[in-house]
Request: fold
Amino acid sequence: MHPRLQQDLDDLPGILDHTNQLAKGFLAGLQQRPVCPPLAEQELNAEDKILREEGHGALAALDDFWQRYATGLSASAGPRYFGFVTGGNTPAALAADWLVSTTDQNSLLSHDTIAAAIELATIEQLKALLHLPADFSGSFVSGATMANFVGIAIGRQWLGLQRGIDVAQQGLAALGPIQVLSANAHSSSVKSLGMLGIGRDALQSIAQQDNSEAIDITALEQHLAATPGRPTMVLASAGTVNTATFDDLPGLLALRERYPFWLHVDAAFGGVAACSPRYEHLLQGWQQADSITVDAHKWMNVPYDSAIQFTRHLALQMQVFQNHSVYLEAPTLRPDNYLHLTPENSRRFRALPLWMALKAYGRNGMREIVERNVTLARRLGEGLAASKGFRLLAPVNLNILCFALTEIEGEAEAARDRFLARLDQHGVVRCTPTHYAGQPGIRAALVNWMTEERDIILALESMRTCRSEAI
Ligand SMILES: *Cc1c(COP(=O)(O)O)cnc(C)c1O
Reply:
């Protein structure tokens, strides 16, 4: 063994203790940490870009990283990071994630680990949490992007099957073009169309309802009626990233009775609302979808990277993702045969953090996070609407705000960008830019388990200050 490896093996308990100290220090300072480190702090030293011939051992490497670069880490896991849709880590999920790396299990139905059984149990508990029926199966993937990829891939296979074609075997050329219809497909679904050979151009935008991001069912029906027999997939939004708008799922299901299409529901963050009796009506009908995406690293507050794809078409999923080799177990149709159901081969024990969080906090713990975030999002919305210089671009439907600056001189987008840059410098709250209804807007998405009333007060103060400083 290389002497550095031997030294670290001998000193492993000390290395882990030291890592624990660094982690504790980071978490203790998370509330005060700037939400967004200055660009200068995000620069790497030249020597750290170059491979070393001899290493310095784990302790020296850890300290070197921490001393140089800890200030370059954002507070994205903290309570006032409202950019994108960014969750944090509950204690149980964090502890479990440490064990995932420590135990380094391969979750693919090998008969030498409990990992796949726990993954299956986690999926079953999620179905209970989110009121999904027994005929769904699911698996963990790295994020909602891959969950959308898997759902669309199974849909592609289903569209082939309707015409006697096995797309996974024969290729998409045997089927020909697919039309993909959506009012507000997330960009990751568009990316998936590219990756799956369906093509980004296959997406046809359907009109939205007036003053809403939800799909106009009448416009969709007109399109379906005008394209009879065309292999069709509909990508529904169950929570758009701009305004947390939900498509009318019962309306889509009624159309599917008359115009058979694959219905994929992207519920990356919005699906978690199903755990609350207050908001589960938003997901009404998703039990009949063909495939569903739910992120775990957003509103379920487990570490990156974790999401779940659900489907009611397990056999088709195996047709797409089966993985034959003499050295691997043959595909048999079972819901925990992950090697034959997911894009990966070897797989991290990704389910453990969520399994642990559900064990630690239960249905009511998840529900409390969701309901608190929604209440606080509304509070922030009221605060902004009542503040000079801000206005909401859309109602606060759930946990996301979409707002704009008012009373600005000159170009709106430039003013918005100055404001956001100032907000980042201030370091108290992070928001990110968007466009809504043709105007430059600002998003704030609340999904972190630690966010409380005082964070809303701090965020509002910072936003008002930065507005007057930047405009
Ligand atoms: C975040 C998000 C995605 C992409 O998710 P990743 O986990 O970042 O891959 C897809 N769809 C929606 C609606 C999202 O909010």
Observations:
- Residues 85, 143-145, 186, 188, 239, 241, 266, 268-269, 295, 307 surround pyridoxal-5'-phosphate (CB under 6 Å).
